[in-house]
Known about the structure:
Blueprint: H1 2-15, H2 33-48, H3 52-57, E1 59-66, E2 72-74, H4 76-87, E3 95-107, E4 110-120, E5 133-144, E6 147-157
Parallel strand pairs: 1-6
Antiparallel strand pairs: 1-2, 3-4, 4-5, 5-6
Amino acid sequence: MLRKIMVPLVAFACFAGMSLSGLKQAGAAEGDTAGVKAVIDAYMDAFNKHDPHAVAALFTEDGDFTNGRQVTAHTRKVIDEHLVPVYGSVLKNSHRTYTLRSIRFVTPDVAVAATDYELSGTTNPKGDELPPRKGMLQWVVAKNNGKWLIEVLNESELPAAN
């Protein structure tokens, strides 16, 4: 229960720019950057293959996902159920690229990351292609039994350029 409360609070604190030096454990800055990047890459790969099951498998059992329209899914099972119809419709031809903005280790086994993204090939529910859009993904990832998984993923879209 404490973990469910702490992970979102830590993510908020990191993204709000607050100092978490009191929460850091010795060596936290020396976390497994390659492992964090690998789970982000795996997410992008599964996203671009339009594979909702592979995407959901990257989340912890009690993970949280909030998309750019602020629709939230809680638990791996619900995330999977949410993504199946989305990948079969408005995202079926989509492609996302990303640039890593930052990774910050709260502990050696918990990291907060931020990525900028560009998303193309999406459609509206009628099937009309939408212009490419940009945004940011905010990640809380944790190492569970030696494997990095997504605890929280929040997607924020930038306003369309005029």
